[in-house]
Structures are given as C-alpha cells and as structure tokens.
C-alpha cells in the first residue's frame, strides 16, 4: 500500500488521503459499500464502478460458507470470481460469528462455533481467518478479533481486548509468512469496548506493532451504545492512531455519523445501511431520508433529488414510479440502491473537496443545516464537532435534540 | 372488492392527434408461412428525438411488471440493444384513481413516466398483463375485470379510451372480452365475447373530439395504432366469425361512430394472439392441473421476488409436432384430437384478414413454439416472457438458430437442453461464460465463426467514465486506466460458477444478469430466423430451407424444456429453505436425496 496524506483541514482532524492498493487508487475519506456475498445487492460490478465507487467490502464468514474457499481458489480469488476489478476489503469473520451463530465460544485458540451446515463444533483461529482471506485475495484484510457486543460490561471486555492483541500477533505471523504482503494489507482492529482506559491499553499495544500493520480499524462500536460515548471513543482512537496509517471506522453508515467521524480523523467506513434501507424503500437525500412507501409520494412526478447524478435521478425516475415498485419489484431495490450508494459517495466526495479547499467546517455546517435544520441538531453531533473546533450552533437558530437524533420518515403525518 | 374506475384521468389532458405513424412492410411472405418484414414507427417531426424506429421482423417485445422490465434498472434497459418494443400493462396502476401515470406531463407521457427512450423504444399499452391467465371475475357488457394489488377493478371502454388518449402509447391494445373464468366456456359465452370485443375495438377507433376555440367541436381520426386481440378462444369457427366481423362494411350508426373508417379492420394496425388464455385448457387429466396457478401467484405478487408469477410451466402439447414424441406420449390422445392445434386456431383467425399486418403472439413458451409459429402461421412478433421466466428460475439460455453443423454429433443421442439450470451443483466450478453457443465479448476473434453474446453478463463493458464525487477522484480513475495495460473494451464474462453462487445465496444480481443474457439469446434466435428468411429470393425455396432448419433445431434441442422443470424445483428449494438454519436444512435434504 502507498498511503499519502494530501490535505488536512485547518480546523478539524479531517484529512484527504490517497491510498494506492493492488487494484488501484482510492481517495479517502470514503464510504465502502458492502457486497456481503460477492455482490452489491442487485447490481453488477460494472454498475457499481460506474457510480464512482472504488472500494467495496466482502464478508469472509459468508464467502467461506458459500461459495467456499475451494471455489474461490479455483476462480483465482474473489476479484475474478465476482468480476470486480477495483479495491476490495474483507472483514475477518469474527463479527458474524458473534452476530449470526448461537453457540460461539471464544477460547484462546480461536472461536468455537456450531457449523451452520451440520451443527458440529468448528474452530476459526486467527491463522485460519487470515488464510481464508488470502484465498479471497482482498486488497485489505482484517485481523480476527475477539468481538463483544458494545453493550457488554465487566471483565469480559478487558479479556476480549487483550485477546484481540494476542490474536493480532498470530495474524501478523500468519500474514508475514504467506508471501502475500505485497498484494494484501493487514489492518489491526482496536478493541476495548466503551472503556477509555482499555482503549488506551489496546492503542498502546497496537501502535507498538505499527510496522507490521498497514492500517487500523476502530472496532467494537456501532452496536447500540450511546452516541456521546461512540464519538468520544472514535476521537480517542483517531487522535492516537499514527497519522501515516489509514483509519477505518467499522459499521458506520449514517451520513451524520460519517461526517462526524471524518471530522474526528477517520478515513474509511462501511455499513450495510444504505443498501439495506434501499430495499426497504428508503432513499437518502441531503434533506434527510425519504420513505418512498409513504402515500405522500404516490403522485409526485419529481425525482428523488434533481441535483443527483445517479442513473436513477438522472433518468428522471419519479417518486411516483418508485412508490409503485419499491419492495415489490427487484428493479425498485436496484434503483434505490444505485441512488443511495451515490448519496454516500457524494457526502464523502463533498467532504474531500471541502477539506482540499479549506472549507470543511462550512461544509459541515451547511450539511447539518440542510439535513437537520427543520428537526433540530442531534446534541451528540454538536458536542463531537465542538471537540474539533466546529460549532454547529453558531449563528443558527436550530433546536438541540437529545439521543441519537436519527432522522426517519415514519408516516404520512411526518 | 370490485371497484369501478370511472373517474377521468388527472393532470395531463389528452393531446389528441400527435400519435406516431406505424407502418408494416411485408418484404416477403404469403398468408401462412414464414415471412420477413419491417415494422416502422415514424414520430411526428416536432418531437425532439429520432423520428424513426425500424424493427425488422420476426422480432420480439418485452413485457413489464408494474411498469418495469423485470430485474432491470433503467441503465440496463438503455444498454440492452436488442430491446426495441416494450409493452406496459396498465392494470397495476388502477390501485389509484385516477391512475398515477395519467399525471405525467409532456408530449410523450408513457415514455417519460417509465423512462423509456422515444428514439429507441416502441412502447405499447395494454390493460391486462397478457401473461396473466389467473381466474378472474367475469367481464360485463361494458367492463373488463382487471387485477391490481388492491383487488379487482372494472374498466369500461370509456375509461380505457381516456387512459390511452392520455398516455399516448405508440401502440394501444383494444380491450378484449377474454373470459378468465372456469373453462369450458359455453357457446353463448363465446358469442358474447366476440360481440363485446368488436364493440370495444370500435369504441377505441372512434375519432377524437376536439374542442375548438370558438367552442364548436370537430372530430379527427385518432390515428392511434391499435392492435386487437383475436377473440374466439379454442373454437375455429368463433375465431373466423370474429375476424369476419371487422372486415364487414359498417352502416348507419356504427359507421358514423368510426368515420371515416369503412370497416373496423381499416383502423387496426395489427393482430394479437394471447396464448395465455389458450394454455388454460379444460382439465380432464390431472397432469395439466398440478400447477394450480392462481393461489401461489396471488401471494407472490406481494413479495420482492415475484418470480413465481413468471415461473409457469411450458405446455409442450401447444402445437402438435411429430418430433416432440415424448411430450405427446404423456398427453391423453383424446385431448389432442379434440382440440384444434395452436396453428389451426391462429390460421382460423387470420384467414379472412389482409396479410400485410403484423401478427403478435404473447405467452409463447419455448423457442420451438416460436419457430413453429413462424413456419406454419407466419407470426411477426413474439413476447420475451418465457426468456424472462427462465431468468427468474436460474436458467441461462444456450441455444442458437440455425443450428451449426458442429452441434450434430451427440454420442448418446440425447437432446441438448435449451439452457443451463445454474442451480445445478455441476456448475459450482464451471468458470466459463454462460452459453456454449456464443463467445464472450473479450474472447472475440476475427477468425471465429461463433457469434458473440453482447449481453451485460457475457460482454460486460469496462467503465470509462464513472461519476466523480470530488475533484481528486480523477486520480483514482486515471491511475487505474494507466495501469490497466491498455484496458480492453470488454471485461471477462460472468461465469456459470458465479451465477450458481448468486442463485444459491438468493442474490438479485443473478436475475439481472440472466434477463440480460436470455433476452440477447432470444434476439440472436430471431436474427438467425431473419437471416435464413431473407437469404433466398424464391419464396418456396425459403419455406423449404426454413422448415429444414426448424426440424434440425427440434432434433437437436429438447422441446419439452425439461431443464425449466428442474430449475423451477431448485429455485423453489432455495426460496423455501431461506432464513436462519438454512445451510443445515439443505445439508439434511442433500443427505436424504443420497
């Protein structure tokens, strides 16, 4: 990997970077759409690439089950298998073991879980996770970490953090001896739950191993924790992580979360949210999400967003047509998936331009005003951005909203 | 449940006489037998787009579901080059009163609302989905029962006329009184069907009344391009009677209503045959009815993948041919002898009519049926429904016409399948393009005689101008282009192994790629037909050569379409096994089979 910081925000910790991997250059900060089972839901790789997307994510857990490593090996890796010629990142499979498998038991050796095929006890070790990811062949691979729910408290959190460090060492060893270091890049995952002391210990240990890892992820968040805790942990990690390594915030996908993370110094994020919400009939816009299932869109001849360059909006596809097909026709899901991916890319692309042009604080202020101006700013966003020198409340008369402040179009009344 | 949709359309007002002109030129051919022609649509010169769409026939049209081509996003509709005629069935829009598309403003509301390209696409409008043969409440003297998600709607000829005049389709299908009630239908019912269908046709052919500035009214012919469903069901005499009825010179009030037309046929641009209604047969044998049809389809329209609706069985006995021995062995002999064959029915309808009008058949169910209808009747346009259905159930079509000599030698004398059931485990490691009969775009060589499949699955076009989201994005694309070692125009094809994976993981992308591929294969089939038919001057010779090629096709490819049956079973297995614990359930099932 060639990694270069090409611009920094004069106020916040935000930065623009150029990350060159085996399958081309990706400009950061960026959002990574999730192609869980080797396909962005409903789209072809050509469509995804045409949207200006240069880095997507595959899930190791899923690809290991189907099509399986043997198929991927014979295909020559996941890039060739799915016809994706751009950069690819795979997670380690640790998160899905915890979220999808009932009987996972973590031992020092690895994660012991019931095979979804026959229920037999199966072990996923850090070494195996890395070697599976070698078969997949992604440009960025993740260490296997000991994932605990972000709501977990007590000694288990510390244990998981320490184990994640030990597993990182085993992943590094496996990766070093693979001879694939020139093509694939290993990222460490900072754990430690919501406890700043544990996070610091983990950061100490992982920064020590900087020469063996090409980037860092911040894990163990986006699991339902308080937003005020979320941003503080992100800030703590981003502040301390080395500036010459990309920083990846796992599972972050709401536009406001993305921009806060970028302001705190995060370079990459992934989430299924934009693609999943598309399948439920929700279009993302700079004025908040639009739930196209609602009756108020029945007769609207307007596109989702007149200024959007996505093929859905550019073709003039009206909200009325979308209302008629979303959640019924696959084509409805495709149209909104295309739009939502472009929305995410526009949010991040806009951030890149703003940072480059020295107007990122203004970009934040105008984004939040458009997105939340009518309902009120989430208090946690205001707090988070104040911590890096941007005051959203300055000069505007917008109420503060407690809690997550997530915008949602619930009903026709809204 | 039944509701009347009597209200006039909403926003846009009917514009009147700016319909494009549809002409059909029969280059070669006789009343019955293979023929080639051209369907030309000329748009009024004040429209901004290309004025002429020229479709060589035989060709195909593709139907829509809720106004969209199944599984295609708009960029795919525009990049799929074979698609030049799209049919929109209006009934799903009866959920709202007035129907929402009638709010679309502009001079080409139907194209604009659905995002079709008026310089490339002929868009026709029918009330009902021609592939939907589910049982329906009876039609009345002045209404057709149409189906939408909120139930059954009654649509009067006046409603239909106003929808058509508002939506400005390139081609409109007249309402037809096709009974979708339990078969068999009485003779009285058939007589009614014929009378109503003719009356409703006449209603659509009435001139448009313009209100002039000085508030007098003036009538001008609609210039609508009207296709008519050939009524008469499975009775050849009823079919003949229907056709005769609109060749008759009109008198009195009837003549006044459609002035200046002398007979109804003068206002008819083409003849349509909906085989869906004919495929529903009286059921003396249980083999015919095991599909049940209705119930399964009804629930499926509410879910995202409405594939079941499209996954109906082909009916191998639809036309009796000596070559499809196995299918006729299964059918009760009595049925075959009592019921006129499909081509007899079509010929009965066409016999009294002028030959130089396009003939359209919907709900064909196999390439064999298409070829036979071209050979024995002379059909000009077919709907692509069966190829889309194949994509729904995971079948990648792999067939070619005329059959090349290399296809001759099959050691075990087993017929080839018309496609690959990509659910089959044998494709898990099959890293090749979808069709043997076609090359992938990136494998194109000047020396090879094998044609290239131009679809999005076999010839994916490498991206040269993606959307940039910031000014530095050019770096990621420039660097990529520089290093791509002079990037080829086409990326490698998607493989059977990848599609196999997508189908088993229930990924929607599988169906998108398969629709693109199957439609391209259908396009190539009909291109092959046209090449044969236009390659010889002597009409008799053409017919003989064509018949020989059809026989060869039938000898080489399995006309029972058994690959569709197994694919449908596999598709169901994946569908029903979905959800938590699925891998275990499938493993268990695998054991039981073994």
UniProtKB/TrEMBL annotation, chain A:
InterPro entries membership: TGT, TGT-like_sf, tRNA_ribo_trans-like
What is the catalytic activity of this protein? Answer: guanosine(34) in tRNA + queuine = queuosine(34) in tRNA + guanine
Annotated ranges, domain tRNA-guanine(15) transglycosylase-like = 12-370
Cellular location of this protein?
Answer: Cytoplasm
Any one Gene Ontology cellular component term annotated for this protein = cytosol
Instruction: Please tell me where Zn(2+) binds in this chain.
Output: 308, 310, 313, 339
Q: Which UniProt keywords apply?
A: Cytoplasm, Glycosyltransferase, Metal-binding, Transferase, tRNA processing, Zinc
One GO molecular function term of this record is: metal ion binding
| The protein's Enzyme Commission number | 2.4.2.64
Q: Which GO terms describe its biological process?
A: tRNA modification
Active site, UniProt feature: 91, 270
TM ranges: none
What cofactor does this chain's UniProt record say it requires?
Answer: Zn(2+)
The family line of this record is:
Belongs to the queuine tRNA-ribosyltransferase family.
- NCBIfam families registered for this protein in UniProt: Q_tRNA_tgt, tgt_general
Report the protein name in the record: Queuine tRNA-ribosyltransferase catalytic subunit 1
Native organism: Suillus plorans
Automatic annotation (TrEMBL), chain B:
Q: Domain tRNA-guanine(15) transglycosylase-like, which positions? A: 35-248, 344-531
The source's domain of life comes to: Eukaryota
Q: Name one Pfam family in it.
A: TGT
Q: Which GO terms describe its biological process?
A: tRNA modification
InterPro entries registered for this protein in UniProt:
Queuine_tRNA-ribosyltrfase (IPR050852), TGT-like_sf (IPR036511), tRNA_ribo_trans-like (IPR002616)
Protein name in UniProt: tRNA-guanine(15) transglycosylase-like protein
């Amino acid at each position: 990997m060639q990694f270069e910081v090409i611009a920094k925000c004069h106020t916040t910790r935000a930065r623009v970077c150029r990350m060159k991997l085996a399958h081309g250059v990706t400009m950061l900060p960026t959002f990574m759409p999730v192609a869980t089972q080797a396909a962005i839901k409903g789209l072809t790789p050509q469509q995804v690439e045409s949207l200006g997307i240069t880095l997507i994510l595959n899930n190791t857990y899923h690809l290991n089950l189907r099509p399986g490593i043997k198929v991927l090996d014979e295909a020559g890796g996941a890039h060739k298998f799915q016809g994706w010629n751009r950069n690819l990142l795979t997670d380690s499979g640790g998160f899905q073991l915890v979220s999808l498998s009932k009987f996972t038991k973590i031992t020092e050796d690895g994660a012991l879980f019931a095979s979804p095929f026959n229920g037999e006890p199966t072990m996923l070790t850090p070494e195996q996770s890395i070697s599976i990811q070698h078969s997949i062949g992604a440009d960025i691979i993740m260490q296997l970490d000991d994932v605990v729910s972000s709501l977990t408290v007590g000694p288990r959190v510390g244990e998981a953090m320490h184990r994640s460090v030990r597993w990182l060492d085993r992943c590094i060893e496996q990766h070093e001896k693979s001879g694939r270091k020139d093509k694939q890049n290993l990222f460490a995952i900072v754990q430690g739950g919501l406890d700043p002391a544990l996070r610091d210990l983990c950061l100490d240990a992982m920064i020590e191993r900087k020469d063996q890892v090409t980037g860092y992820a911040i894990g163990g968040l986006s699991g339902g924790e308080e937003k005020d805790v979320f941003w503080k942990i992100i800030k703590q990690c981003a502040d301390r992580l080395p500036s010459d390594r990309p920083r990846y915030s796992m599972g972050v996908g709401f536009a406001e979360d993305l921009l806060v993370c970028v302001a705190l110094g995060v370079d990459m994020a992934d989430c299924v949210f934009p693609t999943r919400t598309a399948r439920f009939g929700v279009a993302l816009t700079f004025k908040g999400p639009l739930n196209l299932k609602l009756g108020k869109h029945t007769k609207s001849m307007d596109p989702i967003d007149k200024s959007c360059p996505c093929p859905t909006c550019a073709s003039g596809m009206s909200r009325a047509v979308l209302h008629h097909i979303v959640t019924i026709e696959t084509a409805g899901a495709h149209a909104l998936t295309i739009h939502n991916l472009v929305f995410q890319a526009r949010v991040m692309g806009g951030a890149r331009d703003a940072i480059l042009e020295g107007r990122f604080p203004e970009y934040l202020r105008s984004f939040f005003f458009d997105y939340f101006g009518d309902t009120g700013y989430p208090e946690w966003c205001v707090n988070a951005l104040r911590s890096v020198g941007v005051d959203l409340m300055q000069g505007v008369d917008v109420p503060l909203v407690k809690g997550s402040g997530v915008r949602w179009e619930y009903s026709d009344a809204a | 449940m039944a509701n009347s949709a009597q209200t006039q359309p909403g926003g846009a007002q009917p514009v009147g006489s700016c319909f494009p002109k549809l002409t059909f030129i029969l280059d070669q051919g006789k009343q019955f037998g293979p023929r080639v022609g051209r369907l030309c649509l000329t748009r009024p010169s004040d429209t901004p787009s290309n004025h002429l769409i020229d479709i060589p026939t035989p060709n195909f049209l593709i139907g829509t579901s809720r106004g969209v081509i199944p599984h295609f996003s708009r960029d795919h509709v525009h990049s799929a080059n074979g698609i030049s005629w799209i049919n929109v069935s209006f009934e799903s829009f009866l959920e709202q009163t007035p129907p929402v598309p009638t709010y679309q403003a502009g001079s080409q509301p139907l194209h604009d609302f659905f995002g079709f390209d008026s310089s490339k696409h002929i868009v026709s409008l029918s009330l009902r989905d021609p592939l939907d043969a589910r049982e329906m409440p009876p039609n009345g003297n002045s209404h057709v029962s149409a189906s939408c998600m909120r139930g059954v709607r009654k649509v009067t000829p006046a409603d239909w006329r106003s929808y058509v005049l508002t939506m400005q389709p390139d081609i409109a299908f007249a309402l037809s009184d096709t009974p979708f009630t339990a078969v068999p239908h009485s003779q009285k019912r058939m007589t009614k069907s014929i009378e109503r269908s003719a009356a409703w046709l006449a209603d659509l052919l009435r001139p448009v009344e313009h209100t002039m500035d000085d508030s007098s009214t003036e009538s001008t012919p609609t210039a609508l391009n009207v296709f008519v469903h050939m009524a008469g069901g499975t009775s050849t005499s009823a079919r003949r009677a229907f056709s005769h009825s609109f060749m008759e010179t009109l008198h009195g009030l009837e003549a006044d209503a459609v002035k200046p037309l002398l007979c109804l046929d003068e206002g008819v641009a083409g003849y349509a045959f909906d085989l869906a209604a004919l495929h529903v047969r009286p059921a003396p044998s249980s083999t015919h009815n095991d599909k049940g049809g209705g119930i399964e389809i009804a629930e499926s329209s509410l879910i995202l993948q409405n594939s079941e609706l499209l996954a109906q069985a082909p009916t191998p006995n639809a036309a009796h041919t000596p070559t499809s021995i196995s299918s006729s062995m299964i059918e009760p002999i009595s049925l075959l002898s009592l019921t006129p064959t499909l081509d007899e029915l079509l010929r009965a309808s066409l016999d009294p009519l002028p030959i130089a009008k396009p003939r359209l058949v919907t709900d064909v169910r196999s390439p064999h049926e298409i070829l036979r209808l071209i050979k024995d009747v002379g059909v000009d346009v077919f709907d692509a429904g069966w190829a889309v259905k194949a994509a729904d159930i995971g079948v990648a079509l792999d067939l070619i016409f005329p059959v090349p000599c290399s296809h001759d030698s099959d050691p075990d004398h087993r017929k080839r399948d018309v496609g690959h059931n990509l659910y089959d485990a044998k494709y898990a490691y099959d890293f090749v393009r979808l069709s043997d009969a076609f090359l992938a775009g990136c494998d194109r060589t000047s020396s090879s005689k094998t044609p290239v499949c131009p679809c999005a699955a076999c010839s994916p076009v490498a991206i040269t101008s993606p959307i940039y989201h910031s000014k530095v994005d050019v770096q990621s694309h420039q660097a990529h282009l520089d290093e791509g070692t002079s990037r080829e125009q086409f990326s490698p094809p998607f493989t059977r192994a990848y599609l196999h994976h997508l189908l088993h993981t229930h990924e929607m992308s599988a169906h998108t790629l398969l629709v693109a591929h199957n439609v391209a294969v259908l396009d190539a089939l009909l291109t092959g037909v046209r090449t044969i038919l236009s390659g010889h001057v002597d009409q008799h010779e053409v017919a003989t050569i064509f018949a020989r090629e059809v026989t060869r096709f039938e000898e080489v490819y399995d006309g029972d379409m058994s690959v569709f049956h197994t694919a449908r079973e596999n598709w169901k297995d994946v569908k029903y096994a979905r959800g938590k614990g699925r891998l275990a359930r499938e493993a268990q099932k695998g054991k039981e089979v073994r």
